[in-house]
Automatic annotation (TrEMBL):
CDD domains hit by this protein: NAT_SF
Domain named N-acetyltransferase: residues: 3-154, 157-304
Keyword Hydrolase among UniProt keywords: no
Top-level taxonomic group: Bacteria
Any one GO MF annotation of this record: acyltransferase activity, transferring groups other than amino-acyl groups
Protein name in the entry: GNAT family N-acetyltransferase
Keywords: Acyltransferase, Transferase
Taxonomic path: Bacteria, Bacillati, Actinomycetota, Actinomycetes, Kitasatosporales
Gene3D superfamilies from the UniProt entry: 3.40.630.30
Organism, scientific name: Kitasatospora sp. CMC57
Amino acid sequence: MTMIIRDFRPADAEAAAASYSAGRPHLLMTPEAVSHLVATATPEQHYRLLVGELDGVVVGSGRIGLHAFSSTKGQGFANLSVNPEARCRGVATAMLAVAERHLAEHGVTRIRAWVDDVPDSVAFAERHGYVRGRSAHFAHLDLTAGLRPVPPLPEGVELRTGADYLDDPHALYRVDVDGTQDEPGGVDLDGLGYEDWLAEVWHRPDLDRDLTTVAVADGGPVAFSAVHSDGATRYWSAFTTTVASHRGRGLAKLAKTASLHRAVARGYTDAYTSNDATNAPMLAINDWLGYRRCASEWAYAKEI
């Protein structure tokens, strides 16, 4: 058996995307999105996409880099995926060694990693010195089974789509920055500027702007539900957020429900979402919509 750990090449896009969701059908990643994330990473992120080969076949990938947009310096991430049939053959261990060395060379003192809530993955993380933190849950919605009706529009509110903001999405950027400041999670992103947001969020090739739904009030966007899709049958809730001044009016529920109805009309069959275990408002919305938990993961961290 010959093992090679190396950096991503454009020809690896399909295999790298497949390894991301191999054994984890609740995750969605397209080859185009893989290539985009590599191409648009800023120098400050020191981003690398590793691939692991066994006998010339790509069987795993590792996404590593710095949280360059966080006000807390010295934080990095290392998220690894290995195809089920290739596990327990040293690929993840070899990729992790490369990742830790790379991050240490660029000043990282704390590495964060998301780990599937399954015994083998948890044991791997803890065996390598990672300590468990917060949890998150994935949920699935069968779009062929019928949906809750779209809630009535509150007075003074209208719904638009992300496609209505193609010429100038800056208003959506403002909603994203405002709405996610107090979102549960271990890393703040208060240093994410508009140009970086355009590259990382708005120009992602799997961002479905027609399904992304925006609630407009008081002259501008105040909430939206952003969607990634595979362009065929699978729908992923990338993030749903509301500015602080307009919370408590049901706008997030309204936007997400309307988006799901658009997805059904286009023939989509499966919707997935993920939420921090402490994000009670979004968990309640997803329960109301009919999402059912299908997997979980843990945030692990290691001081280096």
